[in-house]
Amino acid sequence: MAAGAREAQVRRCDVLVCGGGVAGVAAALEASREGARVILLEKTLLPGGLATSGLINVYLPLCDGNGHQVTFGLAEELLRLSMRYGPGDIPDWRAARNGGGNARFRVVFSPAAFVLALDEALQDAGVELWLDTLVCAAIVEKASESGARRVAGIEAETKGGRLRFLAHTVIDATGDADVAHRAGVLCHDEANSLACWALDANVLADAPTTLQTRGGRIGMLRVGGHRAEVGAPAPWHGLEAPEITRFALEGRAQVRRYYREAHAAAGPEARQTHFPIALPVMAQFRTTRRIEGRERMRPGEMECRRETSVGLAPDWRKPGCVWETPWGALLPAGIGNLLVAGRCIAAEGDAWDVMRVIPAAAMTGQVCGLAAALAARGGSSPEDLAVTEIQTRLRAKGFLLHRDEVVR
Ligand SMILES: Cc1cc2nc3c(=O)[nH]c(=O)nc-3n(C[C@H](O)[C@H](O)[C@H](O)COP(=O)(O)OP(=O)(O)OC[C@H]3O[C@@H](n4cnc5c(N)ncnc54)[C@H](O)[C@@H]3O)c2cc1C
């Protein structure tokens, strides 16, 4: 191929966001609103990741269960967007004391409605969106003097062929740390239990609530479960195609079994009134890879003050518990110019369980988007930014950064 033709295959931007889940969307919106030229690459046709393609339709809380909101910014904006074209109500959460579930600032939404609103928000913000675009390699450079490694961009497979995307800063929001892993960053993985959430319709007005189905006539059928809930063996890692295939097929086999039994119990006509209407098009792994970061969130550290905190995440499992998110958990160890947002940040055990959910993913996405835009504007690498500058700007956007600020 001639040099000119090769050059035509290169796209450039200030901030390149890989993966259009909740974290990637938040990162792209924030960076673009901060004035950066942003490209967002997504391998499916839908923004939203597990929250839309994966049918995970419970936007866990922004509050601590005691009437205090602790997560702000795009995490709240996206929660409200999830209801713009569909159902969902924010419960009365301000009066709650020690409140769980429906006494918290959370919402159950329609995944399809959320997609429509995310499309609109990305377009309004001027993000250049590439769907059906699979990130498949990291472009890593070595600085000539120090020998330090930095990510300069990625290669992506598209219908039109393989393209190179070069950026001032790259954000890995793939959920699986695909960019970090391919750039040689040390990553850890954990086992999952089987999960398959499917949309279930039961159109008989007087239909009894079906097993594990919530929300009335259209609800979510959930098979499998979190290993802490079901105590089930958790052999699934989600890192190889044959295993991902078995995971998807086993989940769907369990959904089939459910309908076979439900139809057998209710009689032959039940097939006409009670049936599946949507299956996840993304494997529902809670965790695949997470990065080794410059800082790490560890189990039991919910009481810890982190001086580098860039945001608060309420513990969705335990009212009253709030975690501080250290900036270094979004910075992969040993490489420059790369930020990581969403469920693959450096958090383990119950810290990871708190940080992997939708509102925390949106929060870390926004922080990465802001930092990437600042780095691009200042001509620096994000790891060289002063954390105090990021913190000042986040506070100006309404963020709380430390647990002792929550009561004010
Ligand atoms: C069974 C289950 C139940 C859950 N329950 C809840 C719940 O009730 N409430 C809650 O808040 N959270 C829940 N979660 C967690 C939550 O859904 C996710 O962790 C969260 O949505 C993660 O967002 P993310 O943006 O970090 O990652 P993801 O949603 O995984 O998004 C990553 C995006 O990157 C794209 N991508 C990946 N690799 C590439 C690549 N190589 N090239 C291009 N694009 C790529 C994907 O297609 C996807 O769109 C649950 C998760 C599971 C699996």
Secondary structure elements and their pairing?
Layout: H1 3-8, E1 10-18, H2 22-33, E2 38-41, E3 58-59, H3 74-81, E4 107-108, H4 111-125, E5 128-130, E6 134-142, E7 149-158, E8 161-172, H5 178-182, E9 187-189, E10 195-202, E11 218-224, H6 227-230, H7 241-266, H8 270-273, E12 274-278, E13 289-291, E14 309-314, E15 322-326, E16 338-340, H9 349-355, H10 358-378, H11 387-396
Helix pairs in contact: 2-4, 2-10, 3-10
Flavin-adenine dinucleotide binds next to helix 2, strand 3, strand 6, strand 10 and helix 10.
Give structural notes.
The strands form 5 sheets. Strands 1, 2, 5, 6, 7, 8 and 16 form a 7-stranded mixed sheet that branches. Strands 11-10-12 form a 3-stranded antiparallel sheet. Strands 3-4 form a two-stranded antiparallel sheet. Helix 2 (22-33) links the parallel strand 1 (10-18) and strand 2. It has helices at 3-8, 22-33, 74-81, 111-125, 178-182, 227-230, 241-266, 270-273, 349-355, 358-378, 387-396, and strands spanning 10-18, 38-41, 58-59, 107-108, 128-130, 134-142, 149-158, 161-172, 187-189, 195-202, 218-224, 274-278, 289-291, 309-314, 322-326, 338-340. By secondary structure, it is of the alpha/beta class. Mean pLDDT is 92; it is low at 1-7 and 208-216. The chain starts with a helix and ends in a 12-residue tail after the last helix. It is built from 11 helices and 16 strands. Helix 3 (74-81) crosses helix 10. The chain has 2 domains: 8-190 and 287-405, FAD/NAD(P)-binding domain, CATH 3.50.50.60; 195-278, no CATH class. It binds flavin-adenine dinucleotide (FAD).
